[in-house]
Amino acid sequence: MTVSTQPKGILGSGLRDGLQLKPVRYQWAYDLYNQAVANTWFPNEVQLVQDLTDFEKMTDEEKHALKTVISYLNPNELLINKSLAFGIYPYVNAAEAHCYLSKQMWEEANHFMTFEYIIETFPFNREEIYAAGRGKQSLKDKSDFQLKYVGRMLNDKLDVTTTEGKKDFVRNLVAYNIVLEGIWFYSGFMVGMSFRRRNLLRNVGSLLDWITRDENLHLTFGINLLLTILEENEDLQDPEFAEEIRGLILKAVELEEAYNKDMLPQGILGLNADYVNQYVKFMTDRRLEELGFEKEYHVSNPAKWMAAANDTLELVNFFESTNTSYEVNSVK
After folding, report:
1. How confident is the model at residue 241 (pLDDT cuts 50, 70, 90)?
2. Is 45 exposed, middle or buried (0-12, 13-18, 19+ CB in 10 A)?
3. 200's torsion region: left (phi>0), alpha (psi -120 to 50) or beta?
4. Cβ-count burial of 179 within 10 angstroms (0-12 exposed, 13-18 middle, 19+ buried)?
5. Is residue 224, in this structure, part of any structural domain at all?
6. Which of 17, 119, 146, 257 is most buried, taking the most CB atoms under 10 A from its CB?
C-alpha cells in the first residue's frame, strides 16, 4: 500500500495519512517539537533536601495550600495524557504534529512523576494528599466540567469529516488545552511558586518553572492547532460557535474562582484567593487574545514575578534564543 502524498488539512483520522515528514506542512509544529526535545529534563536532577527543612517552618495553612495544589495537579497530568492519546492524536494527521504530541505525552508523564517525587520526598500521607480537596463543591464542579468535555474525548468516536464532529473536537481541545492546561494549571503553579518569593521551597519552585516552560509549549501547540483548524475549515467560522467557545472559557473561570476560595480560605502570607483570582482573570484575558477574542476582565497582572510563565505569544521569538535553564547539550 502506498502512502498518499496529496496535502490534506491537519484534521483527519485515516490510519495511513500523515506518515511523511517532508516537506513539512506545519512549520510551527516542527519547531515546537525540536524545542520540546531540547527542553528534556528529569525531576531527580533537583534535590529537595533544603525544601524539606523549609517545609517544617511553614504554617498549617501554607502546608494545606501546597498539598491542595499537588493533589489537583498530580492526577490531572495523567488525565491530560489520556486526553491527548484518545481525543487529539487520532484526529491529527500531520507527521510533525504527531511527533510533537508524542513528546508532549512523555512530558505529561514526566510532570506526573515530578509530583510523585515531591509526594514521596516530603512527609506527606498519600491518602491525605489526595483527600486535600475532597468534599468541596468547588472541586466537584470542576470535575463535572472535565467529565463533560475532557471525559467525552475518552469515550466518543468523532467524525471529523462533519461540521458537528469538528465542532466537538474544537470544544474538547479548548476544554483540555485552554482551560485545564492554560488557566487552571497556571493558578496552581502560581500558588506553588509563590513560596520561593519568601525564600522557601526554592527547588520545588525550580521544578515548577520547568513544568511551566513545558506547558507554554503545550499551549502554543494547542492554540496553533485551533487556529489552523479554523483557517482550514470555513464551516467552523461561525459567530455563534465562537461565542459558545468564549462562554465555555468564562464558565471555567467562575469554577476556578470558587475553587481558589476553598483552597485559600484564610489566605497565607502574601497570597489570598482574591489575589489568585485576579491572576486567573489576567491569564484568561491572555488566552482569549491568543484565540482572537477581545479581553473580558481588563485586569492587571498582580503577579508580575510570574511574567516568564505568561508569555506564550512571545514563544515565536523564544525559538531564536537559547534556553539555558534546561536545554540538552547547551553550552553555558
Report:
1. very high
2. exposed
3. beta
4. buried
5. yes
6. 146
> Model pTM?
0.85
In this structure, the chain runs to a length of 332
Evaluate whether residue 16 is within a structural domain. Answer: no
DSSP 245-298: HHHHHHHHHHHHHHHHHHHSSS-BTTB-HHHHHHHHHHHHHHHHHHTTPPPSS-
Nearest to 283 by CA among 215, 229, 221: 215
Which among 87, 92, 119, 89 has a CA at the least distance from the CA of 104? Answer: 89
As a whole number of angstroms, the distance between CA 166 and CA 169 comes to 5
Nearest-CA neighbor of 74 among 205, 228, 208, 199? 208
Query: SS3 of 11, please?
Result: strand
pLDDT of residue 323: 36
CATH classification of the domain holding 74:
1.10.620.20
What is the number of other CB atoms lying within 10 angstroms of the CB of residue 228? 20
Q: Is the dihedral of CA 312, 314, 319, 322 positive or negative?
A: negative
Range of the domain at 288: 28-318
Q: Are the beta carbons of 189 and 212 closer than 8 angstroms?
A: yes
- Whether residue 23 lies inside any domain: the answer is no
* Chain centroid to CA 40: 17
- The answer to which of 65-69, 212-216, 296-300 has the lowest mean pLDDT is 65-69
Angle between helix 60-83 and 95-121 (nearest 10): 150
For the chain, what is the domain count?
1
Closest alpha carbon to 271 in 187, 172, 149: 187
Asked, for residue 226, whether it belongs to a domain, the answer is: yes
pLDDT reading at 144 higher than 90: no
